[in-house]
Every structure is written in structure tokens, then in C-alpha cells.
Amino acid sequence: MQNTYTINDVKQVINATGDIVTDAAISTLLTDSRRIGNPAGSLFFALDGRRDGHEFIADAYIAGVRNFVVNHQPDTIMPDASFLVVADVLTALQTLAAHHRKQFNLDVIGITGSNGKTIVKEWLYQLMNPEKSIVRNPKSYNSQIGVPLSVWQINETHNLGIFEAGISTPGEMDKLEAIIQPTIGVLTHMGTAHDEGFESPEEKLDEKLKLFKNCKQLIYNYEALLDHKDELQTRECFVWSRKFNLVDLYVFSETTISGKYYMRAIYKEKEIECLVPFRDEASVENAIVCWATMLAMGYSPADADDRIERLAAVSMRLELKHGINDCSIIDDSYNSDIQSLEIALNFLNQQNQHQKKTLILSDIYQSGLQLDALYKQVAQMVSAKQVDRFIGVGTFLQEYKDYFNVPQMHFYADTASLLKEMNKLHLQDETILIKGSRSFEFERISRALVQKAHETVLEINLNTLLSNLNFYKARLKPGVKIMAMVKAFSYGSGTFEVANMLQYNKVDYLAVAYTDEGIALRETGITLPIMVLNPEPLAYDKLVANKLEPAIYSFTLLDEFVKFAQEEEVMNYPVHLKIDSGMHRVGFEAFEIEPLCDLLEINPYIRVQSVYSHLVASDAEQHDLFTVQQISIFETAFKQIEDALGYPVIKHISNTSGITRWPNAHYDMVRLGIGLYGVDAAVPREESGLQPVATLKTTVSQVKKMAAAETIGYNRNGSLKADGKIATVRIGYADGYLRAFGNGVGRMLVNGTLVPTVGNITMDMCMLDVSNVEVKEGDEVIIFDEQQRIEDLATQIGTIPYEILTNISQRVKRVYFYE
Ligand SMILES: *Cc1c(COP(=O)(O)O)cnc(C)c1O
């Protein structure tokens, strides 16, 4: 059952003007011109984002879209397209979704809070899924745009909606409330963290509570709303607490039993119990929220316990991993519905490291659609995303296989049959998306295809990388370009995957340190212009063959390049001139600019693409005068050069902290480095917005009881203060965990607690004092993440974050996440 509205209906609902020349049945709301699957049935909203959505109308038109919501008619003539003109495009999207929601009379759970919204939403879905037909936000689509797109999915077959709402500034919740129109409210964990968009935690809470203003029932934690009792009186509330007993669900006892979390509570004057398969603090609280919600909605305590015990971890993330036979694997093996399939296919489509794109898909359950319509839609989506090989698993896919039109296709009745035949498929040098409903146990496929890793991994969150990119973009004037620094293996984060993400999100330039790094990017399909900071004359041929642009910092380099260009008959080749304004590493100094200009004026072989310099202390207030001096030297130099050349060049001097602290020195482009990876000395840590991208983790290989009298490790340097225990973990200085971290200098997070190293760090392993924490072999250990940050490690051993990041050796596998 797909929703359709005629374009005329839409025009009325959103109160638009403009001529209608199409006769479309609109079923898809589109906000991103790169993600078109159903052009004829799409209505494109030209939203003002970081770029004006009106710029993408032409792209969407070329892809076949003919219906648009805009705030002004575009200049280009597109006679067969309808443009609905409104004052505000986002409001129109929200109005349409709110109108759509009103057509249905179903129970809708509205979820908000500071943390846990997505997990609680997904868990409630798992818990109530057996008897309800549920519609929910895909992933964590909980924003001003994500919520309307989520609500748009409601159709006649659903009898429960579960929608989360996230806000970042006052005034936003009223809008989301009007779209979701929740009948039941659920408040998740409320943190006290300072939030940029709000004056105070109270203001934030007041704003969140607006989601519940028309709910007939509200489920919340007693302590979270102590000051709000009066306003809550008007509705039915289900209150839980772990401290006060005069509530609906009083959790009075909590213990760990063989790795699970066991809780007892008083409910309707009886004692009830619940076993949770997770024991970390956040999961336990989320589980209690779900427990309370189930009871509030009339589930029996026995049912609730039974289902909560079988809750599965929620992974909202797509993992990009190295596979066998040079494949890349996108692992999304835990859920399958049509919305998340589309998101995953977009991610697959975005990958360029292999020519060939493969999808392994299981039957999709509970879509609310007729099988026929469902698989028609899936087949259409698969074709639109240009999948080269399709591997279908399940009897329904087999039954509807004629709908699919993909160059290579294979169908299997079940996962076991596919695994048996896997070798015959010769999967090689392709990107493979694995996407399956839970019951198909596609993790078995993923295990077979993913390269076995040494258990120390560096996880890179590509979404965070993007949000950091946007954090800096927001600080630039319109038109200022971004050069992203991906030198040194993208500061250790993995060149190809990071570069690909940056290319997809349209940065203007990349920069690498050496020619080889640039070639590696070209070989994996990166087409952005790339500057090479240290071009080696011996590699000029490869540099030019790969369209890499050299930074020229001396007369020697310039000479050699010009000679090379003459011999090879290369004309007008783009180069970048480096000015030494005070770093005194490389670059032309002030007195060299004039002779440089003389050479440039008569030179047909090169074209100066940009002139740049580098700030030595853009983050450090005590050197601000020096920075001003650098900027002034740079200005003089580029003016001289531009005058001599007679054409404008791109000028750039700001690195990460330059972007943050020197807005007047952005010129035409900025060079964003470590900030992308979430580190910027000039941004206070409390300020939300910039987040760490990388998490380094390993596992415990052995736990030993240890008497205080014993010594631990090489040279007998370590010992415990009292009898206790140590854990040996699988990371050493060969992985980049430097020897300096030994003997208590470094700390790692073991099951949530920071514990010190003990003894010397060895090549492949090191030991931790775990006397005070519960830990067993195989447990995960975190070296750095958003809790203990890279900056903290740098402080521990007296170095800088750059060195910590780039030291992580290539032996440590990189795993990429994308939400
Ligand atoms: C590495 C580098 C940058 C980036 O510096 P960050 O402090 O990481 O932003 C900018 N410019 C040049 C020339 C660099 O070598």
C-alpha cells in the first residue's frame, strides 16, 4: 500500500502558487538530488541546507524528476516540470507530512530525551513487532527534515507508529509535535550536558516536553521531571524510578548474573523481574524505559520479561570492512526493510573503490506492502542504484525473481544454500552490501566474507567526519573553498574511505604529502583535484600522468618542473606556490618573490592555481601578533604574484585552528586537517559540534590473579600496590601504543572504567591493572574514544594529537561506520 497524492492535492495542502503542468501521483518526497530512485513519483523539495537546494533542481530534472517545491521559479526553462512556489520550503514539507499524519487514526508513540532515543525506538519495535504492524523513523531520522520523511511512510496497514524527535534549538519541538501527533509519550534519559542551542538544561527540558502536550499517556522517570509535576497532572502518567517507591514501576534490586543484568521491581503491588542481555549503564536505562512502556501499554510482566531478555543490540550503523579477495564489505546484516535498504544502497552506490557493486539481500518481512508491490519496488530500486550483481536469499525473492533485471543474478532458498555455493560465485574485487532480515542470520555470510582481523581495530565514524566537515563549513563565508588534508593516510584514518566520503560531499580540493599518496587515491576512483605538498622531481611523470598538482616551494623545484614540462610538452599545468611567511620549513621568502614573478611572467608551461602559506600557531593566543605578521607577509606576496600573472589565483593560509580563530584569513580557500578528525585546540571540548571520529579498541587476551610481591613484564618494571589482577590486552608499541604509555602513564577503558597500564609496553601486548573492575577474556578495551580522547593520550605522554593518530600502524585494521 503506497501513498499517493496528486500534485494538485499537494498544492492545496501546502498552499502553494505556480502552474501545474504535470499529472503526477506523488509517492516519494525527495530532499537530496543524489538519491533518486523513483523520479516520476518524486516531489523534490529545494531545501536550504548548507547549500541552496535550488542549485540541485537541474540535477534532479536530468534524473527525471518533474515536480518541485521551491521558493522561487528557477531561471532555466523546464517546460514539462511543475513548480509549486511557497514562502518556505521546509515548512511546506512539514505541512504536507502533518496533513498526511492526520489521515490515519493509529496509536503513535513519540520519543524524546537527550540520549537513547534511537535505541529505545528500535527496541520498542523489536518488542512489539510480533503483534503490531509498526512504522518508525528509519535509522535516526529525527530532525526537522527526518521526521516529516519518516511520518510520510505511514500507510493503512500500520496500527502503531514509533517516532523519535530530536531538537537542537528552541521552537523546533512544536513543529515536530504537529507532524508526529503522538498519542503516547516516552521520555528517555535526560542528560545535563550543556547544549549549544539552549540557555540552560531547564530550557532544553521544557522544549522537549512540548512533544507530549497532546499525549493521552506519558511514560517517564520520576527523577527526570521532579520540577514538572504540576503540568503533568492533566494526563495519565506511568512513572518509573530506581530510588522512590511511590511510582508505577519501582526498580529496587539490580545485579549482574552471568553477564546479564537482573532487575526486580514492584509493579501493581507485586514483585516482578526482568533480565536484560546488556549490562552497560546506558543499555540498562534504555531497557527500563522499554519495560515501563510495555507495562504502560498493557503487556503482562511475563511477556515483557520474556521479550526483553531476547533484545538484540541495535546497530544503526553500516560497517565498511575489508573483505576476502580484495572485496569491500558493507555489513548491514541485522535488519532489512525498504527504507534502510534504500539508505544502504545509496552508500553502496557512493563507493568507488571497486567497479563492481554487489547486493546480497534476504526476503523482507513486515513491509506492510503486498509481496508483489514490495518486490517490484525492491527490483526498481536495485536497478536504479546500478547494482551489478544481485544475490537473493529466501523463497519470496526466488518467487519474484523475474522482476529483477541486473547483469548477474543468483537466487537461493536460504542462507545455508548460499554459503554452500559461495565459492562458485567467485566474489572478487567488488563492493558487497550484505543486507538481511534478522532471521536469515546473515552475520554468517559476513563472517565468511570479512577478512579476519587482528582484534585491534580503529573505527572511523564517517558520519561524524561529515558533521565535523559541516561544523567548519558553517564558519566559512559563502564561496570559500575547502581543501581537505588527507596526507599521511588521512591522519591515520584511511585515505580512500575518507577521501571518497569527502568527494561525495563535495569538498573542493584534497591535499596529500607525497605523489604516491595521490596516485593511490586516483587508483580508487577519486577525481577531485589533488595538491601534492612535497612533490619529488623523480616522480613528476607519475604526478602529471595522474593529474596531481604540485606545490612548488623553491626555485629548484620550479626549474625541474618547468624542464620536465618542456620535454613532455605539457602546457599550462596547474601548480601551487608556497610562501614562507614564518614557518621556515619550505617556501619562497619575501625577497624571492620578485625574481619568482619574473620567471612566472614568461612561463607558458605552468599556470598558478593557488598561492598559499602556513600558519605556525593559529591556535595559540600568545602568538597572535606573529600570526598577524604572517598574514601580512602572505598578503604582500600574493598581491605581487597576482599583479605579475595578470590573472586571479586561489589564496589560502588557514589550517583547522585558522578557520576557527582567524575568520579574516580564510581568503578563497581553507585547508582543513585535524579538525575533520574531531580535534581542534581552538574549540573548547564542552562545545558540542566537533566530535572525535576515531575509536581505537582492542580485546583482553588473558586475565591473571597477581600478588603484590610479583613483578610484571620486561625488566620487572611493573607491580601491583596490593594483591589484585591484571589483564593482558592485544596492543603494543608496534601498533602505535607507544612505550611511553607504560608503567601507569597510559590508561584504557575496561568495561567503562579507566584503568592504568602496569609494567612496560611490549611490542604486541601490554598489561593493565584491573584489580577493581569486572573483566573476562575477550572483553573489549578502549584506548581512545569520545570519553578518553586522543587529546588526553597526547597529554599523558607529552605529545600532540597529530602524533597519536598518525602513529597507529597499518597492522591495525580500519573499520568504517556510516549511519
Ligand atoms: C597538515 C597541513 C595542514 C592542516 O593542518 P591542521 O592543523 O591539521 O588543520 C594545512 N596546511 C598544510 C600545509 C599542512 O601541511
TrEMBL record:
Active site: K487 (proton acceptor), Y714 (proton acceptor)
Domain of life (superkingdom): Bacteria
A GO biological process held by the record: regulation of cell shape
UniProt binding sites for substrate: R585, M763
Listed Gene3D superfamilies: Alanine racemase (3.20.20.10), Lyase, Ornithine Decarboxylase, Chain A, domain 1 (2.40.37.10), Mur ligase, C-terminal domain (3.90.190.20), Mur-like, catalytic domain (3.40.1190.10), MurE/MurF, N-terminal domain (3.40.1390.10)
UniProt pathway: Amino-acid biosynthesis; D-alanine biosynthesis; D-alanine from L-alanine: step 1/1
Catalytic activity: L-alanine = D-alanine
EC number(s) from the headed UniProt entry: 5.1.1.1
Molecular function terms, GO-annotated: alanine racemase activity; ATP binding; pyridoxal phosphate binding; UDP-N-acetylmuramoyl-tripeptide-D-alanyl-D-alanine ligase activity
Matching SMART domains: Ala_racemase_C
Acetylation among keywords: no
Residue span, Alanine racemase C-terminal domain: 693-817
Coiled-coil annotated residue ranges, if any: none
Cited function: Catalyzes the interconversion of L-alanine and D-alanine. May also act on other amino acids.
Family, similarity comment: Belongs to the alanine racemase family.
Protein name listed in UniProt: Alanine racemase
Species name: Mucilaginibacter terrigena
